[in-house]
Amino acid sequence: MSKLWLIIGREYLSRVKKKTFILTTIFAPIGFVISWVALIFIMSSGQDTQKVALLDPSNILEIKEKGKLRDGLVMYKYPQKKLEILKESFEKDGYKGIVFVPEQSLDSMTTNFKVEYYSNESLGINVEKNIKEGIEQRIKKLKMRQLEVDELTLKRLKTDINVIPTNMKSSDEEVSIYRARIATVLGGIMMILIYSVIFIYGNMVMRSVMEEKTNRIVEVLISSVKPFQLMLGKIIGVGAVGLTQFAIWAITLPLLYLGVGLLFAGKLQELQESMTTSTASPVGDTTEIMAIWQELQNFDYAYIIVVFLVFFLAGYLLYASLFAAVGAAMGDDWGEGQSLMLVISVPIIIALYIGSAVVQNPTSSLGVWASMFPFFAPVVMPVRVVFDPPIYQVVISSVILVLTGIFFTWVSGRIYRIGILMYGKKTTVKDFMKWMFRKD
């Protein structure tokens, strides 16, 4: 047992002390924050008001003003010039473009309305959206007047439908309508996290084994420690490196984001105000935000974290042992190792696709059975757990996964103990079967 801890310590410290680990751990959160700050400045710089000339010779929109009118990012002015003359002088007059309303019918049955835009620059998405929304609102008012419908009557015709989910098995009378949305986001985050860890650190275990085998370092190690202990020590040591990195990021990222939020509070407020004025409806209703915040506090995070860690660790053990076996069976042919790694990766990729579908329908038969299958369970079950599946399903899935992980760790250990010392020969499926069932 002491030798196992020595191997774990060696694998852990040798990687934690590497410059790549230190630089990645330090600069990854900083990189995320820099990208966030850059996004703030890019979005705020894209909120510049565009001064546009509006020509409506037929007065279809019945706009009487001769001054300015603002619709989100578009500031309209109404020059008294003909279109052909204005085309030659609009830039000199300080306009970014010309919105021209050709003569056409506008009655209560009209569903299509044409507007022409002239400019020497490409029409941006935000400017196009604001032009469309502004003219749509004006046409709406004109049609309401034609139909003799006032704003109050129109509001009475509109009905907002709120679907209030009620869980009859729960002691609570009703569940917030935001719970499913929040659960979808949380489940998606956990799914992507486990998928990434299995790929990144499983591949790291395989490369570590292949490098030691290629450099013949393993021959020295095997003389003093059992191959299975060496494999298990590598798996645990590399996994501990990953957990350390994620723990550091979990602490530093929120602090960095909080600091950036306080530092650029004014810029964020300006951006939110410009986004609010650029759309027909306000962004970020305070009542809705408070309801979401309240629902966030209603999740049983202790239960979710425990289940997540069980499937996280058991899934990593299962796949890392397979990656280690592949690394031990391969020689110095990295291409052959990559092809075998693809075979191991297929179940993880399928599990990711299934998890994406389960997020939309967590109680489907596909979700239930996929969460029981050990090669899919590490990705699929954490998605379902935020939707409160029956506890017996979680227990059965976790037991199957743990037992499967132990079994494949044993199988990989048998492949590892022989394959780690094999050189100069390509490994076949027949060799794998012999190594698995070879007597000690």
Q: Taking strands numbered 1, 2, ... along the chain, how are they ordered across the largest sheet?
A: 2-3-1-4-5
- Total strand count, please? 5
Question: What would you call the structural class?
Answer: mainly alpha
Overall outline? elongated
Count of DSSP H/I helices: 16
Per DSSP, what share of the residues sits in E-state strands of 2 or more residues? Answer: under 5%
Q: Please compute the radius of gyration using only Cα atoms.
A: 31 Å
Reconstruct the topology from this structure:
Blueprint: H1 2-16, H2 19-45, E1 50-55, E2 68-71, E3 74-77, H3 83-89, E4 97-100, E5 116-118, H4 125-146, H5 151-157, H6 179-214, H7 217-222, H8 227-263, H9 265-277, H10 286-296, H11 301-329, H12 334-360, H13 365-372, H14 377-385, H15 391-419, H16 429-437
Parallel strand pairs: 1-3, 1-4
Antiparallel strand pairs: 2-3, 4-5
Helix pairs in contact: 1-8, 2-8, 2-9, 6-8, 6-11, 6-12, 6-14, 8-11, 8-15, 11-12, 11-14, 11-15, 12-14, 13-14, 14-15, 15-16
How would you sum up this structure, described in words?
The longest helix has 37 residues, at 227-263. The protein has 440 residues and is mostly helical. It has helices at residues 2-16, 19-45, 83-89, 125-146, 151-157, 179-214, 217-222, 227-263, 265-277, 286-296, 301-329, 334-360, 365-372, 377-385, 391-419, 429-437, and strands at 50-55, 68-71, 74-77, 97-100, 116-118. 66% of the residues lie in helices and 5% in strands. Helix 6 (179-214) packs antiparallel against helix 14 (377-385), helix 8 (227-263) packs across helix 11 and helix 11 runs antiparallel to helix 12 (334-360). The protein has 2 domains: 50-156, 3-Layer(aba) Sandwich (D-Maltodextrin-Binding Protein, domain 2), CATH 3.40.190; 178-437, no CATH class. A 5-stranded mixed β-sheet has the order 2-3-1-4-5.
